[in-house]
Design a protein that fits this description.
about 40% helix, ArAA_b-elim_lyase/Thr_aldolase, three-stranded antiparallel beta sheet, 2 domains, alpha/beta, globular, Aspartate Aminotransferase, domain 1, binds pyridoxal-5'-phosphate
Length: about 450
C-alpha cells in the first residue's frame, strides 16, 4: 500500500471551536500580537509546540490510574527508571518536572561566570539556563545546518573541527560538551550516529563530560535508520541505545519523545555530580523518586517510552511533516529542507525579503497564519534569539516559523488544510508588514513580549 495511514484509531475527541478571520484579527490585537498570549480555544490548529501536547494512548491513561503516589520509593519511580534504562543506560536517573528543570539543575552545578558551553545548537531554555549563571553558550553546528534550503541528511551535526578548536581555546573553562538531538532550534534536523560518537570521542579526549539533550531521541533514531550508511533495517531501540552509549549524561523533556503531558529527567553517570544534582533537586523539585512529578506521571512516561520507538508511529509522524514540506516547496514557499523531525519550518526571511530581520519577518508570517487560518505557529528567529544578555539586538542566524506537530493529534485532512492556508497566504505575502517590540522582559522575551505592527 502507498498510503501511510495514522497507525491508531481515535476513541476520545476534543472539539475544535470554529472562528472567523475577523474574530481572529481582534483576538490577535488583544494579545499584543504575541501568539503565546492567545487562548488556545481561539485556535483551530495549534502548532505552537509539540511539547506536552501529545495524545496519550489508552495504555498510558491506564498507567495513570495505576500510578502510586508514595512520597518515597514509589513503584512508579522504579518503572520510570527501568523504562529509561531500557533505552539509555545511565547510572543515575533523576526525575524533574520538565526538561528545563533538568537543565537548571545541571547548569547550577556546571555553569558560572567565565565558563563556556558548546553544543550543535542550544535550545532556547538551555541557552537561558546557561546564560543566567553567567556562562556563555555557543552553537557549533556544521555550516550546512545554517543553510535552510540545502539538502543534507544530518544538518544537526556538530562541526567537529570547530569543537576541537573551541576546546583548545577555552581549555578548563569548558565544563561539558552538549549535543541536541534532534537539533530543535536549528530546524529539527538530525545528528548522525557517527557524529554523536565523534563528538563523544573529542569530549573524552579533552576530559570533558559529554551531555546529550535527548528531547527528540526517537525521531533522531528514525532518521539515522533511514539515512545513515549501515543503519538500515536496525531496530529503533538498538539505534537509540547506541546514541547514548558514549554519553556521560542527558537532559530530557518527557513532553517530547515520551508522549507525556509533563515530565523530564536528568541522567548522569558520575556519582559526585549526581549527588550535587539530587541535593539541588530536593530544594527545587522534590524528593529524588518523584522530582516534581506525581507518581502517575512517572507511569505515563514509562509507558510512553515503550510506544515512542514504534516504527509505524515514527513513519507516520515524519511523513506528515515531509508531506507538508513538499507541498509548500512545490508552491514556492521557502522551507527548511529536508523536513525536520517534529515540525515544518518556513524560512520567513527568504520568503519576505521586504521585511528586515529586525522587523521580525517570522513574527509577520506567524501572525498572518493565525489571522487567515486560525493556525498557531511559532517564530524561531530574531524575536527568540536576537537579543544578547547585555540588551543589544542583532539578527538571528535565521528567521524561521516553526509549525510543530503535536504527536498523534492531527490527521491528514488537518495537514491538507494547513497547505490550503499557505496557498492563500502566498497570494498576499507581499502585503505583509513587519513588527516592532513595545515591551519585553530581560530574558526569554518571545514568551511575553508585546508587539505592534509597523
Ligand atoms: C523542549 C526542549 C527543551 C526544554 O524542555 P521543557 O520540557 O520544555 O522544559 C530542551 N531542549 C530541547 C531540544 C527541547 O526540545
Amino acid at each position: 500500500m502507498k498510503t501511510i495511514i495514522e497507525p491508531f484509531r481515535i476513541k476520545s475527541v476534543e472539539p475544535i471551536r470554529m472562528t472567523t478571520p475577523e474574530e481572529r484579527r481582534d483576538l490577535l490585537r488583544a494579545a499584543d500580537y504575541n501568539l503565546f498570549k492567545l487562548h488556545s480555544d481561539d485556535v483551530l490548529i495549534d502548532l505552537l509546540t509539540d511539547s506536552g501536547t501529545s495524545a496519550m494512548s489508552a495504555r498510558q491513561w491506564s498507567a495513570i490510574l495505576s500510578g502510586d503516589e508514595s512520597y518515597a520509593g514509589s513503584p512508579s519511580f522504579f518503572r520510570f527508571e527501568a523504562a529509561i534504562r531500557d533505552l539509555m543506560d545511565f547510572k543515575h536517573i533523576i526525575p524533574t518536572h520538565q526538561g528545563r528543570a533538568a537543565e537548571a539543575i545541571l547548569f547550577s552545578i556546571l555553569g558560572g561566570k567565565g565558563k563556556f558551553i558548546p553544543s550543535n545548537t542550544h535550545f532556547d531554555t538551555t541557552r537561558g539556563n546557561i546564560e543566567t549563571t553567567g556562562a556563555r553558550a555557543d552553537d557549533l553546528v556544521i555550516a550546512e545546518g545554517k543553510n535552510p534550503s540545502l539538502v543534507h541528511p544530518f544538518k544537526g551535526n556538530m562541526d567537529l573541527a570547530k569543537l576541537e578548536a573551541y576546546l583548545e581555546q577555552h581549555g578548563d573553562a569548558v565544563p561539558c560538551v552538549m549535543l541536541t538531538i534532534t537539533n530543535n532550534a536549528g530546524g529539527g534536523q538530525p545528528v548522525s550516529l557517527a557524529n554523536i560518537r565523534a563528538t563523544a570521542e573529542i569530549a573524552r579526549r579533552y576530559g570533558r563530560p559529554f551531555i546529550i539533550d535527548g528531547c527528540r531521541f526517537a525521531e533522531n533514531a528514525w532518521f539515522i535508520q533511514q539515512r545513515e550508511e549501515g543503519q538500515k533495517g536496525r531496530a529503533i531501540k538498538d539505534i537509540v541505545r547506541d546514541c547514548f552509549a558514549d554519553a556521560d549524561g542527558m537532559t530530557m523533556s518527557a513532553k517530547k519523545d515520551a508522549f507525556a503531558n509533563i515530565g523530564g529527567w536528568l541522567a548522569l553517570n558520575d556519582d559526585e555530580l549526581a549527588d550535587k544534582a539530587r541535593t539541588r533537586l530536593i530544594m527545587t523539585e522534590g524528593f529524588p523518586t518523584y522530582g516534581g512529578l506525581a507518581g502517575r506521571d512517572l507511569d505515563a512516561i514509562a509507558q510512553g517510552l515503550s510506544e515512542i520507538v514504534d516504527e509505524d508511529y515514527l513513519r507516520y509522524r515524519i511523513r506528515t511533516n515531509e508531506y507538508i514540506t513538499e507541498r509548500l516547496d512545490a508552491m514556492g514557499v521557502p522551507v527548511v529542507k529536508p523536513a525536520g523531525g517534529h515540525a515544518v519550518f518556513v524560512d520567513a526571511r527568504a520568503w519576505l525579503p521586504h521585511i528586515a530581520p529586525l522587523q521580525y519577518p517570522g513574527q509577520a508570517v506567524a501572525c498572518k497564519l493565525y489571522e487567515l487560518g486560525g493556525i498557531r505557529g511559532c517564530e524561531i528567529g530574531t524575536v527568540m534569539f536576537g537579543r544578547a544578555p547585555d540588551g543589544t539586538e542583532a539578527p538571528a542566524s535565521m528567521d524561521l516559523v516553526r509549525l510543530a506537530m503535536p504527536r498523534r493529534v492531527y490527521t491528514q485532512s488537518h495537514a491538507d488544510y494547513i497547505v490550503e492556508v499557505f496557498e492563500e497566504l502566498t497570494a498576499m505575502k507581499d502585503s505583509l508588514r513587519g513588527y516592532r517590540i513595545t515591551e519585553q522582559p530581560p530574558a526569554l522575551r518571545h514568551f511575553t513580549a508585546k508587539f505592534a505592527p509597523l
